[in-house]
Specification:
The protein is an alpha/beta fold and about 325 residues long. The chain has two domains: about 160 residues, Isopropylmalate Dehydrogenase (3-Layer(aba) Sandwich), CATH 3.40.718; about 160 residues, Isopropylmalate Dehydrogenase (3-Layer(aba) Sandwich), CATH 3.40.718. It is about 45% helix and about 15% strand. The chain has an eleven-stranded mixed β-sheet with strand order 3-2-1-4-11-10-5-6-9-7-8, sandwiched between helices. Strand 5 and strand 6 form a beta hairpin. Helix 4 runs parallel beside helix 5. The longest helix is centred in the last third of the chain and has 27 residues. It is globular. It starts with a strand and ends in a 6-residue tail after the last helix.
């Protein structure tokens, strides 16, 4: 059985999302057990099916608007996020899933779950939808504002293993997000990272990748720092939402558009599904000793279900041990 610790109080909608998503997951996967860490008085009325779901009560919740993540993690030890992460760290669960505030999740991962000794940084890595139907890995998208060239290398190795094991890519190509495709482009760190990745054993380096290529990406993994990655990801999400809104407005603007919609309804639904962040299951925190998956703060039950699905797949693939076997040993 795979055991998942769920931060049930976390996210914009709390138990209304996490409980329903958890019930969907245990119904779908017969080898799954879930521990809900959250307010039992709010969970019980929603928990119409408690098959392989247990509840650990705590009313304490880390606010989505928390301004001091370090203080929050250290002072709110009974918060649902902290308890779920501790359960993961202590071996009471195989993975942790949360839709709590991003920086609190990152800090909690550092302080409670801990990094792998071989990894100097952790990174948030979502699965980004692509035109060919095969998601790409983009990291970091928010855990580190700045990185050194060696950090790029560790994250590239980690992501390559995940691409192989989860996305079934035999030889993942790694790209470096940059403002131009030619060597020598970008800031000093991108120039250093380019040549470091080019000579790094264990990865297949593609070269620089421009932001315009992300949705039709020539490689399987794209590495960057958390500042650039976060801007890139949010630009993609904002553009997708904006295009959907404009398309809807154009369809409704004329009788012909409304009639055309009747014939194209299935195509438009498939388009929406291909571009939806709900289907990809949130972002994994790379570099940790245990599996932690960060769902979107505004996840609905379907999106949270997919975050649980992703965490289950990562556990079954034994990702952490496979990554450790590929990373260079820790120097004494």
């Amino acid at each position: 059985m795979v055991k998942i610790a769920v931060d049930a109080n976390g996210g914009d909608y709390g138990v209304d999302t996490t409980v329903l998503g958890s019930m969907m997951a245990v119904k779908k996967f017969k080898d799954l057990e879930i521990i809900l860490y959250g307010d039992e008085t709010k969970i019980k009325p929603l928990l119409t099916d408690s098959t392989r779901i247990t509840v650990v009560h705590t009313a304490d919740t880390i606010s989505m608007g928390e301004k001091d993540p370090v203080k929050a993690i250290r002072s709110q030890k009974e918060a649902s996020l902290c308890l779920a992460m501790k359960a993961c760290k202590n071996g009471e669960a195989d993975a942790c899933v949360t839709s709590g505030p991003t920086q609190c999740v990152v800090v909690g991962a550092h302080l409670l779950v801990r990094r792998l000794p071989q990894m100097e940084r952790v990174a948030l890595c979502p699965f980004v939808p692509n035109l060919d139907g095969h998601p790409r890995l983009l990291l970091d998208v928010g855990a580190n504002v700045e990185l050194k060239k060696e950090h790029f290398g560790g994250l590239a190795l980690f992501a390559s293993v995940v691409s192989q094991e989860i996305l079934k890519v035999k030889e993942p190509k790694v790209g470096l997000l940059n403002i131009g495709s030619e060597p020598g482009k970008g800031r000093e760190i991108e120039k250093e990272a380019y040549y470091y990745l080019k000579d790094l054993n264990g990865i297949h380096f593609y070269g620089n990748v421009e932001p315009t290529e992300i949705i039709n990406c020539p490689c399987d993994v794209v590495v960057t720092d958390g500042f650039s990655g976060n801007i890139c990801l949010k630009t993609l999400e904002g553009t997708a939402k904006g295009m959907a809104t404009m398309l809807t407005e154009e369809i409704k603007s004329s009788l012909g558009g409304k009639i055309g919609y009747l014939f194209m309804r299935k195509n438009l639904k498939r388009f929406k599904r291909r571009m939806s962040s709900k289907e990809v299951g949130g972002a994994m925190l790379f570099g940790l000793s245990k599996i932690v998956v960060k769902a979107h703060g505004n996840s609905d039950p379907i999106a949270f279900f997919h975050a649980i699905r992703l965490s289950r797949e990562l556990v079954q693939a034994d990702i952490i041990n496979k990554v450790v076997s590929k990373l260079p040993p820790v120097e004494e």
